[in-house]
């Protein structure tokens, strides 16, 4: 019989209060906040809907949880590999955030896609009773006490994939003892790098740890291999030098607004992080006669256009292939830059703002000369001018960028091999 996790009573009480306050807070916020409303509505009658979905199919269940869209993209290579290797199993994919669920709720690589009910003793027990998974996989950062404790008590193999740990995280702060007990609920932790493994060893974590690398490299490399053509994008670029700026925020767009004056032959494609009407209108005010992708019905209109705004979700990772140079937003926000590996996988130099300290690959790309951080409009103009003025240099850097991604592939294979070797899933 499995032994229950040792409890820090004070921290567990604090955790209960956190869950209660979070639940009340997000329900209150749902009155005016669209994302909060989606979070609440997506969990209405969730156990009834989940039970019906489970009973509507056959085969053992592999449960993969991704907090949001970014974590889903990170876990997707593992999910798809398991789907191929274990075709008799069903995949249950859950999300905590609307930014993941609402975009991937119709993802055909999973048999079932749901929101994850908020953690709690009763809710977690009902959820696990219904799905009864043969294997559970969490992506990167997950610290849900009752879900993890419940999985451990039921002896269900539970993996943490593509985790990364730093000394500044809560795992190693005042709450660290309680949070590290949650990490010890995992059957195995697959971390991205040696420093992550070292800090876990320093704190004497009991769960087994393997340095597997980051599954994002497998994912972005896979995307580049999938054929993609878009007539509007191709007509807009028309063999001109084109910067593709992805996941931009207001601060990024303000920085980009003066770039076209300094580079009169450069074209700009902006795929903003938020595509609400208000933000799109703000972007349109910053640039001269920009065009929304959704407005293009005749390629003739693109003839003299210099700015194209992508006002839909899901295209960005494929669009970078059309870039001469790339730009990734978020570097002027507290959360930091978005996914710089997507353009790098296509062999594109990438420019981003100064807030990139929490992104290990940003430091690595800067060190090998294919990533460029800037802080002022003039810096952005200078970097862009340097890259566009020397085609031979840029071609060499592009090759370095692509190699950077390719040599880091393989995390998915390590994880799936572990599952097979340890017989964590039954063969049909």
Structural account:
With 428 residues, the chain is an alpha/beta fold. The chain folds into 2 domains: 9-213 and 410-421, Rossmann fold (3-Layer(aba) Sandwich), CATH 3.40.50.11720; 225-406, Glycogen Phosphorylase B (Rossmann fold), CATH 3.40.50. Helix content is 46%, strand content 14%. The chain contains 20 helices and 14 strands. The chain has a 7-stranded parallel sheet, with helices on both faces. Helix 4 (69-85) crosses helix 5 (98-104). The longest helix is centred in the first third of the chain and has 21 residues, at 9-29. The chain is globular, with a radius of gyration of 23 Å. The two termini are 27 Å apart.
Report the end-to-end length measured between terminal Cα atoms.
27 Å
What is the level-2 CATH architecture name of the largest domain?
3-Layer(aba) Sandwich
Percent of residues in helices? 40-55%
Give the CATH superfamily of the largest domain: 3-Deoxy-D-manno-octulosonic-acid transferase, N-terminal domain
Structural class: alpha/beta
Low-confidence stretches: 1-6
Portion in beta strands: 5-15%
Gyration radius, to the nearest Å? Answer: 23 Å
């Amino acid at each position: 019989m499995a032994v229950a996790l040792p409890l820090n009573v004070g921290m567990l009480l604090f955790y209960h209060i956190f869950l209660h306050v979070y639940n009340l807070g997000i329900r209150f916020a749902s009155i005016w906040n669209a994302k909060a409303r989606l979070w609440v509505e997506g969990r209405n009658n969730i156990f009834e809907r989940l039970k019906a979905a489970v009973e509507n199919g056959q085969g053992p269940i592999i449960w993969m949880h991704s907090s949001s869209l970014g974590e889903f993209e990170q876990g997707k290579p593992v999910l798809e590999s398991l789907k191929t290797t274990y075709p008799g199993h069903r995949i249950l994919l859950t999300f905590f955030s609307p930014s993941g669920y609402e975009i991937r709720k119709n993802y055909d690589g999973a048999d079932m896609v749901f929101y994850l009910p908020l953690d709690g003793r009763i809710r977690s027990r009902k959820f696990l009773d219904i799905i009864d998974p043969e294997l559970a996989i969490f992506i990167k950062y997950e610290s849900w006490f009752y879900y993890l404790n419940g999985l451990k008590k039921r002896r269900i193999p539970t993996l943490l994939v593509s985790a990364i740990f730093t000394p500044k995280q809560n795992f190693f702060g005042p709450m660290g003892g309680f949070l590290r007990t949650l990490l010890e609920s995992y059957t195995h932790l697959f971390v991205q790098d040696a420093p992550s493994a070292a800090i876990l060893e320093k704190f004497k974590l009991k769960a087994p740890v393997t340095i597997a690398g980051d599954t994002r490299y497998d994912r972005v490399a896979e995307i580049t291999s999938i054929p993609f053509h878009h007539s509007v994008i191709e007509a807009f670029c028309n063999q001109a030098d084109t910067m593709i700026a992805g996941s931009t925020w207001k601060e990024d767009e303000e920085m980009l607004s003066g770039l076209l004056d300094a580079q009169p032959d450069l074209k700009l494609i902006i795929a903003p992080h938020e595509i609400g009407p208000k933000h799109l209108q703000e972007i349109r005010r910053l640039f001269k006669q920009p065009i929304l992708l959704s407005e293009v019905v005749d390629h003739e209109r693109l003839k003299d256009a210099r700015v194209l705004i992508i006002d839909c979700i899901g295209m960005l990772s494929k669009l970078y292939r059309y870039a001469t140079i790339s730009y990734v937003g978020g570097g002027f926000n507290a959360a930091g830059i978005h996914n710089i590996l997507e353009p790098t996988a296509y062999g594109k130099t990438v420019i981003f703002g100064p807030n990139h300290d929490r992104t290990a690959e940003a430091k690595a790309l800067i060190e090998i000369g294919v990533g460029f951080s800037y802080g002022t409009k003039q810096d952005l103009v200078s970097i862009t001018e340097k890259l566009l003025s020397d085609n031979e240099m840029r071609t060499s850097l592009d090759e370095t960028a692509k190699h950077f991604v390719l040599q880091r592939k393989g995390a998915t294979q390590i994880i799936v091999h572990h599952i097979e070797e340890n017989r964590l899933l039954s063969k049909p």
